[in-house]
Amino acid sequence: MTASRQGWERDLLAAIDDRAAELLDLAGALIRIPSENPPGDDPAVSDFIAGYLDDRGLRAVRHDGGDGRTNVLATYPGTGRGRSGRHLALAGHADVVPVGDRARWDFDPFAGDVVDGWLRGRGASDMKAGLAGVLFVTALLAEMRVPLGGPLTFVSVADEETGGTRGVPRIAADGLLDGVTGAVIAEPSGPGHPTIGQKGSCQFELRITGRPGHGSLSPLSGVSANVKAARAIMALQALFDITPDIPAELAEIIAVSKEYVRIHEPEDFGAAFDHVTINIGTVHGGTAINVVADTCVITVDCRVPFGVRRDDVLAEARRLLAEAGVEAELTERGARSEANWTPPTDPVVATLVGAVRELVDPEGHGVLQWATSDARWFRQAGIPVLQYGPADLPTIHGFNERAWAGQVVDAAKVYALTALRYLDTVTGAGATSDAAPHGKGTN
């Protein structure tokens, strides 16, 4: 590393420390703007993000994802004189899950304050604190006119929490990620353990029919679709027993991820990495308490490990239903993806993990996750990606969501070092002469 780049790193880290309160205020402001999805219409939070960028000389591009979803992008071009030809995206989603029963929160779910060192409110962990971090760092790099050797694009999308396609898939299809060679999503993670891969998603609906009859005569009269559905639900639990054919190159990262869970999670969920998990999400059947149900509809959410494909899960589901004697119409719905990852040797992964080891945890390393996220869309677009962000993991999607304020600051530092190093920061006299910020695309 040259002395000049060391200087930029030192100055940036010092600036983040000096302006930590500003970063936390930004995260709090995002939390205080409700953007629950569903329903998913979040013009206020998108307008806030775009205004923040515009006010700091980064021309915000407001991208219409459809159905009221607005994505926001902005690019700081750097000098364009880097040796690597790289283009980094720092990304996140602005939508959050619904707050649920407010009476079960110990504080206002849109508080956005810091109390006893905790940033509090819906989205504090998933993922407005991380989004604030990448937004703040992008603006700071532009403000300081850091001579990045390639473009840095900030990306905020509005349609992640329901697995929708109006966010990353839409901006990728519209060409707004063209040229991006690596991405970091500020999704919640362990402080020393970015997530570099995730299971696939196979969601489907079962429609089961019966024959109505008078409830007083059941089971002598009619055929209950609800009883058949109960048999179907129990039969589908055997999807967990599918044996994956794990590729040799993934055996080590699966073992590492299992060990991480054993040490860091309150329960040992390690088996999730090499098994199909099955969640019966909803069950809707019957018309009245005294009528034998003629129809029952079940929705099922399976997460699919490496070595198993969605088609394998669907085929086994049909076999299990037939074995149980249940006729059902099976239709694939919702999120659909195969298990996917970015290898630890990829430059964007190696760069961010190196920053984590230097700033947060000397033993830091990448792990897999059992959930799905926008990372799959980046990978489907051919863009290597990993996830790293501040979080109090047990509170994600629950009541009393929060994130440790110190982690919010640490994550911002990791983003800054990753951008400097991945984009091969230009050094030397006059390096900042053409590093003025601008937007990408057209409004």
UniProtKB/TrEMBL annotation:
Pathway(s): Amino-acid biosynthesis; L-lysine biosynthesis via DAP pathway; LL-2,6-diaminopimelate from (S)-tetrahydrodipicolinate (succinylase route): step 3/3
Class of enzymatic activity (EC top level): hydrolase
Pfam family, one: Peptidase_M20
E.C. numbers: 3.5.1.18
UniProt signal peptide: none
InterPro entries per record: ArgE/DapE, ArgE/DapE_CS, Bact_exopeptidase_dim_dom, Peptidase_M20, Peptidase_M20_dimer, Peptidase_M20A
PROSITE patterns on file: ARGE_DAPE_CPG2_1
UniProt KW Phosphoprotein keyword: no
Source species, domain of life: Bacteria
Cofactor(s), names only, from the UniProt record: Co(2+); Zn(2+)
Hydrolase recorded as keyword: yes
Keywords from the named record: Cobalt, Hydrolase, Metal-binding, Zinc
Catalytic activity: N-succinyl-(2S,6S)-2,6-diaminopimelate + H2O = (2S,6S)-2,6-diaminopimelate + succinate
Domain Peptidase M20 dimerisation intervals: 196-327
Homology family: Belongs to the peptidase M20A family.
UniProt xrefs under PANTHER family: ACETYLORNITHINE DEACETYLASE, ARGE_DAPE-RELATED DEACYLASE
Protein name: Probable succinyl-diaminopimelate desuccinylase
